[in-house]
Automatic annotation (TrEMBL):
<keyword id="KW-0949">S-adenosyl-L-methionine</keyword>
<dbReference type="Pfam" id="PF01189">
    <property type="entry name" value="Methyltr_RsmB-F"/>
</dbReference>
<dbReference type="InterPro" id="IPR029063">
    <property type="entry name" value="SAM-dependent_MTases_sf"/>
</dbReference>
<keyword id="KW-0808">Transferase</keyword>
<dbReference type="InterPro" id="IPR023269">
    <property type="entry name" value="RCMT_subfamily_9"/>
</dbReference>
<protein>
    <recommendedName>
        <fullName>SAM-dependent MTase RsmB/NOP-type domain-containing protein</fullName>
    </recommendedName>
</protein>
<dbReference type="GO" id="GO:0003723">
    <property type="term" value="F:RNA binding"/>
</dbReference>
<dbReference type="InterPro" id="IPR049560">
    <property type="entry name" value="MeTrfase_RsmB-F_NOP2_cat"/>
</dbReference>
<dbReference type="GO" id="GO:0008173">
    <property type="term" value="F:RNA methyltransferase activity"/>
</dbReference>
<feature type="binding site">
    <location>
        <position position="166"/>
    </location>
    <ligand>
        <name>S-adenosyl-L-methionine</name>
    </ligand>
</feature>
<comment type="similarity">
    <text>Belongs to the class I-like SAM-binding methyltransferase superfamily. RsmB/NOP family.</text>
</comment>
<feature type="binding site">
    <location>
        <position position="138"/>
    </location>
    <ligand>
        <name>S-adenosyl-L-methionine</name>
    </ligand>
</feature>
<dbReference type="InterPro" id="IPR023267">
    <property type="entry name" value="RCMT"/>
</dbReference>
<dbReference type="GO" id="GO:0001510">
    <property type="term" value="P:RNA methylation"/>
</dbReference>
<feature type="domain" description="SAM-dependent MTase RsmB/NOP-type">
    <location>
        <begin position="23"/>
        <end position="187"/>
    </location>
</feature>
<dbReference type="InterPro" id="IPR001678">
    <property type="entry name" value="MeTrfase_RsmB-F_NOP2_dom"/>
</dbReference>
<keyword id="KW-0694">RNA-binding</keyword>
Length: 187
């Protein structure tokens, strides 16, 4: 129907592909209502109000994911002082859930394949605290550089090593690790 036609100029071959596969083109033109999420760096729980003032909206606590808050999709956190000072992370709740499913405990040695830009890597390091290690592997050197910048910003470099390597063949065991190594392979 005419009113269902997308307002974005989607290429004709793509529209044909959507039609052939019984997919609704309006999903590509709908206004994004998916919330954004932030995670507080451990120790900065008190800065919720500070962030709320800066971004001028209420943060909604994610009850099932400790340290996570949701905020409306249009809100930008990159310019906020809390973000620039490394007190909050921008990370999706689904990424947080993947890390929580790993059940990381201090002392673990975790392998994070496809690690860049490092949102989950940082969360794992925060969970480890001062014990254990994370090995981050990514095939894209420039993306791993972004990961290194994150580690510096959030002061998490001490227990992490990064490798530019293909995760399908990577095999370097952390020094002093035992059989309790955990791995996070994600895309
Ligand atoms: C969606 S991102 C991963 C996001 C990341 N885990 C995080 O939480 O921030 C996918 C990454 O996989 C990397 N990648 C793809 N194929 C790979 C491979 N064979 N070995 C290592 N890294 C790979 C890409 O370079 C890219 O940085």
């Amino acid at each position: 129907m005419e009113e269902d036609a997308p307002t974005l100029p989607l290429p004709e071959p793509f529209l044909q592909f959507l039609e052939a596969n019984d997919l609704d083109p309006s999903i590509y033109t709908a206004i994004d209502s998916t919330p954004r999420f932030i995670r507080l760096k451990p120790g900065f729980d008190a800065c919720v109000e500070e962030v709320e003032k800066e971004v001028k909206c209420k943060l909604e606590k994610v009850q099932w994911l400790q340290g996570f808050y949701s905020l409306p999709p249009h809100v930008q956190i990159a310019g906020s002082r809390a973000y620039q000072e490394g007190k909050i992370y921008g990370i999706d709740a689904s990424s947080g859930a993947a890390v929580m499913a790993l059940n990381v405990s201090p002392g673990d040695h975790v392998l994070d394949l496809c690690a860049a830009p490092g949102a989950k890597l940082c969360m794992i390091l925060d969970l480890l605290g001062d014990l254990g290690s994370v090995t981050g592997v990514d095939v894209a050197r420039h993306r791993l550089a972004a990961c290194r910048t994150m580690l510096q910003k959030y002061a998490l470099g001490d227990r992490c090593r990064l490798f530019v390597a293909d995760g399908t063949t990577f095999s370097v065991i952390p020094v002093g690790s035992r059989s309790d190594c955990k791995s996070l392979s994600n895309s």
